[in-house]
């Protein structure tokens, strides 16, 4: 990112967040402070270059680690809430990375914090149904689309959210001696907690993207999470022992850190040991809630920790959880390619 500001808040569980925002931008755009003034167009203008650029810096690192040329990417799925026009950030990212003109692009917009897991599920479907496909999943978010002053309606969002981009390359049948898989996406599913569609919402207004987060979100997730997980584990070919009494602590957990009470509630509902949420809490502390990109950071933090924990037993199976408007709960069952962390 070119410009950064860091903010600290104890209650939100964040110590550091990154924003594409500085005093110069605010001086040039006094309308960003005032929700009564039209600012959407200026925000979309800025996001149109910043969002794909941020994604490109993450993707370049992922492609370098993957070890194959960018032109071997066959599909691109771009998740963001920060974009508002077409051609969109997906096309700009493809051009920044030098992807082939025939790359099949999909943009998923306004999924909020479950955008990353939705993109991963779509990538799995594409990879398994198109021989040799390699899907670049890119999630990139810039809070400038919603940033506002203290008089705005979204103070909780301003306290929690940060900018960030995360990318993952998804494929089937890894190429021997070249590709080193980190996680296998075993199964993926989506559930909606019905009749509370206004609990988490986003809407484009003349003053930018307006977020709505009900005070009831943490409790709703806490009350519904175990039933949702039991549904998933009851139907999925997950390869773990299912006898009706799952020990959730036998799994590893990559949970979207929507805010401290969300992590606390899930931890309590599933009786998880505190270290199960350590990667999620670390990402919230260091980067804030980066919406759809956050879950990529959590997976990255898990593998970083596993690499450090020499000789210790790592769970083979795990769960990725993300939530967003609906309230939608996305669950992905993961299998760790453990040899990569040894
Ligand atoms: C906002 C918080 C940091 C505040 O934490 P605190 O430790 O201070 O304690 P608390 O929860 O008791 O709340 C303190 C005060 O904030 C108010 N408060 C809490 N949550 C609120 C909300 N969503 N909207 C408006 N006010 C809220 C309480 O009523 C209380 O007010 P008073 O002091 O007057 O009694 C936390 O509650 C939090 O992280 N909430 C989760 C936010 C959330 O829904 N995240 C999901 C993001 S959406 C996402 O991740 C997916 C997506 O975007 O798609």
From TrEMBL:
The lineage of its organism: Eukaryota, Viridiplantae, Streptophyta, Embryophyta, Tracheophyta. Belongs to the thiolase-like superfamily. Chalcone/stilbene synthases family. The active site is at 113 (acyl-thioester intermediate). Transmembrane segments: none annotated. GO terms for biological process: pollen wall assembly; polyketide biosynthetic process. SUPFAM superfamilies: Thiolase-like (SSF53901). Residues 9-174 form the Chalcone/stilbene synthase N-terminal domain. Residues 184-336 form the Chalcone/stilbene synthase C-terminal domain. It comes from Oryza punctata. Pfam families: Chal_sti_synt_C (PF02797), Chal_sti_synt_N (PF00195). Keywords: Acyltransferase, Transferase. It comes from the Eukaryota. This is Chalcone/stilbene synthase N-terminal domain-containing protein. The keyword Transferase applies. GO terms for molecular function: acyltransferase activity, transferring groups other than amino-acyl groups.
